[in-house]
């Protein structure tokens, strides 16, 4: 309360006496944010809008819905969307629950302290370890000549490839994607679990709540918005991922980002309008997911301040 | 409580197995190039490959330019918003989150269409232009991380008081930014920079579609054509990511403790 610096809002907001600077106020006011806005408009917003507008135009610039209809009517494209959505959905759900379990284990499980910090550091690394190297690691592990494949075959007499295992299936890609999904969940959800105040548990106990009641009536309601929000972020995270899957099968694999990649490279269809439509579909799906994410995040922040 | 601890160990052990078996298996696999014995031959071949050196250097330089561009775009904006334009904060936060919403492949597709050889701004007409566009694309991808790192750094210092003090002492805007604000948020900027570095170094989609001789396309090429070298490259990539994250952790210990914790 004795803070008399100019950062004090009530003082700072009082009208300052006019001075020379006022005359040049307009340029200085915006000059700091100008590079940011010029950059993001030129290299983020306009290129995206260009594709969105293109999705509604035919080759001569006339308005049309044909491109978007093709997304639905062309079975290979609608199938790619469906596979991508399935992979993203399940890798997000499984990753979120596994990550939540791991986060609860290291925060509240009574494990030694070094395990918590080691897990958090590792999660920071693994959540950024996506792309081609991740695919190489899994090929060396579970590929046809991978070490775990050989071990299972020689020691346990289990031939996983004969059993139908394959990286190029939905299940195979989910197993691989979990390698970055689970750590991302841990990184995001640990602060939320830390935010559960000890006093709430004590208050619940004082009021006679059992451990199960405390979890059901306090922990779950407080955590679910940030949990659900993170699920959606994980969904968007794997929906846009291409490099890992591309390393397994190249352009052959039928998921949306690889479809778009081939389309841009001119391998398959070479119809830019259709490319715009595929891109537009991706933006709509991840955009919708993120609208929910932002909504849930603001809800969860109310509790965790 | 006892059973809780038991389950915590079970969960931890299962997770550790899922994460460490692939890494250990990859490492073991990478040592198998020479028949019958373990050796570091795969690493020697990879590290000695002139294309490895060339593409890796290309990506390192691209990462450095990305970081410089990111700092130039983000720091003044984050500073100015704290100082003068807090009403813009929600808009800027929304924009910096967009690269998480719009997949990288969509962004680069937009670039190819908008900045092709026949466009008013023909970035893709020359090699240098295309490389510049790659750096720009990387800076866009790193925007969410860079902005948050810098904004968190600015939160721990009293921007307004520092600026006013510097102004009273006669400093101009460039002096204030370079000699007062930047040193104070340097550690935050660096942690954003290392994260950017980790993201850029193996990035595949943008580099490949812009046809740049970067590390990501090289990785893809090796992965498609060799057996043991990709495993060695995966271990190297993991070590680089690990190095970047460790540097962020070490740096965060040096970060200034909040001077004006708003209680």
UniProtKB/TrEMBL annotation, chain A:
UniProt topology in membrane: Multi-pass membrane protein
**Which keywords does this chain's UniProt record carry?**
Cell membrane, Membrane, Transmembrane, Transmembrane helix, Transport
Q: Give the Pfam families listed for this entry.
A: BPD_transp_1
Q: Which domain of life is it from?
A: Bacteria
List, alphabetically, the InterPro entries matched: MetI-like, MetI-like_sf
- Where the record annotates domain ABC transmembrane type-1, the positions are 81-295
From the Swiss-Prot or TrEMBL record, give the protein name. Acriflavin resistance protein
TrEMBL record, chain B:
Highest taxon above the source species: Bacteria
One CC-aspect GO term: plasma membrane
Q: Which CDD domains match?
A: TM_PBP2
Which keywords are on file for this protein?
Answer: Cell inner membrane, Cell membrane, Membrane, Transmembrane, Transmembrane helix, Transport
Record lineage: Bacteria, Pseudomonadati, Pseudomonadota, Alphaproteobacteria, Hyphomicrobiales
Query: Tell me, what is an example of a GO biological process annotation in this record?
Result: transmembrane transport
What are the ABC transmembrane type-1 domain coordinates in residue numbering?
52-249
Protein name, as recorded: ABC transporter permease subunit
Gene3D superfamilies in the cross-refs = MetI-like
Residue intervals passing through the bilayer: 7-27, 56-79, 91-112, 124-147, 185-210, 230-251
Compartments where located: Cell inner membrane; Cell membrane
Membrane topology type: Multi-pass membrane protein
Q: What family classification does the UniProt entry report for this protein?
A: Belongs to the binding-protein-dependent transport system permease family.
């Amino acid at each position: 309360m004795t803070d008399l610096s100019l950062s004090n809002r009530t003082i700072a907001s009082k009208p300052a006496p006019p001075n020379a600077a006022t005359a040049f106020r307009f340029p200085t006011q915006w000059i700091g944010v100008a590079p940011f806005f010029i950059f993001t408009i030129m290299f983020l917003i306009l290129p995206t809008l260009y594709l969105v507008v293109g999705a509604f135009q035919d080759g001569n610039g006339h308005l049309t819905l044909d491109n978007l209809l093709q997304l639905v009517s062309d079975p290979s494209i609608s199938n790619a969307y469906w596979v991508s959505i399935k992979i993203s959905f399940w890798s997000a759900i499984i990753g979120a629950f596994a990550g939540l379990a791991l986060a609860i284990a290291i925060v509240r499980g009574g494990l030694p302290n070094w395990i918590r910090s080691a897990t958090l550091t590792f999660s920071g690394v693994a959540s950024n370890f996506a792309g081609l190297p991740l695919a190489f690691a899994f090929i060396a592990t579970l590929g046809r000549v991978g070490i775990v494949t050989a071990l299972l075959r020689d020691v346990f007499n289990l031939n996983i490839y004969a059993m139908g295992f394959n990286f190029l299936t939905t299940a195979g890609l989910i197993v691989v994607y979990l390698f970055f999904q689970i750590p991302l969940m841990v990184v995001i959800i640990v602060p939320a679990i830390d935010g559960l105040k000890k006093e709430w548990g004590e208050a619940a106990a004082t009021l006679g709540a059992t451990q199960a009641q405390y979890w059901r009536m306090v922990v779950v309601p407080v955590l679910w918005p940030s949990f659900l929000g993170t699920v959606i972020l994980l969904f968007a995270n794997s929906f846009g991922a291409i490099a890992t899957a591309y390393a397994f099968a190249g352009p052959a694999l039928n998921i949306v980002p690889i479809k778009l990649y081939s389309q841009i490279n001119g391998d398959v269809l070479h119809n830019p309008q259709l490319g715009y439509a595929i891109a537009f579909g991706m933006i709509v799906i991840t955009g919708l997911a993120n609208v929910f994410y932002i909504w849930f995040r603001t809800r969860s922040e109310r509790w965790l301040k | 409580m006892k059973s809780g601890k038991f389950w915590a160990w079970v969960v931890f052990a299962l997770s550790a197995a899922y994460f460490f078996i692939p890494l250990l298996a990859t490492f073991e696999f990478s040592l198998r190039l020479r028949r019958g014995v373990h050796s570091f031959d795969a690493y020697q071949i990879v590290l000695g490959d002139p294309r490895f050196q060339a593409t890796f250097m290309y990506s390192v330089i691209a990462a450095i330019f990305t970081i410089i561009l990111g700092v130039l775009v983000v720091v003044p904006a984050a500073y100015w918003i704290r100082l003068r334009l807090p009403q813009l904060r929600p808009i800027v936060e929304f924009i910096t989150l967009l690269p998480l919403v719009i997949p990288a492949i969509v962004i680069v597709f937009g670039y190819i269409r908008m900045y092709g050889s026949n466009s008013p701004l023909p970035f893709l007409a020359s090699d240098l232009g295309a490389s510049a566009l790659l750096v720009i694309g990387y800076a866009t991808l790193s925007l969410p991380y860079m902005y948050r790192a810098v904004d968190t750094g600015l939160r721990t210092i009293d921007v307004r008081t520092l600026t006013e003090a510097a102004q009273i002492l006669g400093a101009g805007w460039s002096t204030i930014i370079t000699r007062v604000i930047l040193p104070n948020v340097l550690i935050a900027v660096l942690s954003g920079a290392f994260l950017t570095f980790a993201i850029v170094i193996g990035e595949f989609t943008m580099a490949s579609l812009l046809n740049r001789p970067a590390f990501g396309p090289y990785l893809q090429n090796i992965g498609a054509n060799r057996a043991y070298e990709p495993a060695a490259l995966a271990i190297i990539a993991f070590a680089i990511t690990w190095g970047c994250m460790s540097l962020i952790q070490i740096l965060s210990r040096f970060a200034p403790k909040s001077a004006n914790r708003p209680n």
